[in-house]
Amino acid sequence: MDQKINVFVWDMDETLVLLKSLITGTYAKAFNGSKDVQKGIEIGKTWENQILRICDDHFFYEQIESCNKPYVDAMREYDDGLDLTDYDFANDGFVGASFDDDDNKRKLAYRHRLIAHKYKKGLRSVFGEKMIKSWDNLYEVTDDFTDKWLSSARTCVAECASGTKDVTPLVDSTSSRTQNVNVIVTSGSLIPSLVKCLLFRLDDLISYENERFNGPNVQFCAIGDGWEECEAAENMQWPFVQIDPGPVSTSHRFPGLTVETLGHYIGVVYGESDDDDDDDDE
């Protein structure tokens, strides 16, 4: 029997990462006075400033913002493999606005290659301990303010990948017949999205590569907070798990959402795993 693949399609913003609702104050306001709205706004704006600074200073965002691509490897065909060890990105003549010529495409490909390298290595390979400690403190403050939303969401994604914690056979990635994959979708630009993955500790769980999944053994499950994600999932005939950061909701939230629940949604749409039936036939 061919290996079954479960693809968990995660919406980033306001699902795995709470940021916009912190900046606007809507997250804290939903708790009717039990959370400090101004503190939430300050936390959100601190994140926003850090993300934009890192994007510009270390991921070429100011240079390549006008030529945004859907994924890092989009320019690979223009990369001639030049050794970039001593390459002078600041003075190579790259002009993001003049993107149509092959010379600029090649230079953009170089930038994408370095971005991919930094993403794979992680923030700790790029920045000093003082800066890392500052981001860790901000993460912990945010996680505490959001009642462990960030860490719980990360744990759920990790369990989807590893198949730990009493998962059902349907989503058990420890089975030789099943592979679990996490992917992220977002309406945001590529570079800020990658930096968010790094800062919110998702980079070791989410690959930067653009993978395609198709075939009778592939099962999808979409998880998100908006009607756009819901409509897209319905059009694809995928199960959709609705997320709502509010304190009182009929939808799912973090902490709370589990791998078992995701497995139930998959089972409803695709049917239960046939592993047990196969075992009976052996």
UniProtKB/TrEMBL annotation:
Query: Any note on cofactor binding?
Result: Binds 1 Mg(2+) ion per subunit.
* Keyword Metal-binding in record: yes
Q: Which domain of life is it from?
A: Eukaryota
Q: Has UniProt tagged this entry with the keyword Nucleotidyltransferase?
A: no
Top EC group: hydrolase
EC number per UniProt: 3.1.3.48
GO terms (molecular function) for this protein are: metal ion binding; protein tyrosine phosphatase activity, metal-dependent
Transmembrane ranges, per UniProt, are none
Sorted alphabetically, the keyword list is: Hydrolase, Magnesium, Metal-binding, Protein phosphatase
Annotated Mg(2+) binding lies at D11, D13, D225
Enumerate the Gene Ontology biological process terms.
Answer: cell differentiation; positive regulation of DNA repair
Q: Which reaction does it catalyse?
A: O-phospho-L-tyrosyl-[protein] + H2O = L-tyrosyl-[protein] + phosphate
- Cofactor requirement: Mg(2+)
- The catalytic site is made up of D11 (nucleophile), D13 (proton donor)
- Database matches in PANTHER family: DEVELOPMENTAL PROTEIN EYES ABSENT, EYES ABSENT
Which protein family is it in?
Belongs to the HAD-like hydrolase superfamily. EYA family.
Q: What is this protein called?
A: protein-tyrosine-phosphatase
Q: Which organism is it from?
A: Cynara cardunculus var. scolymus (Globe artichoke)
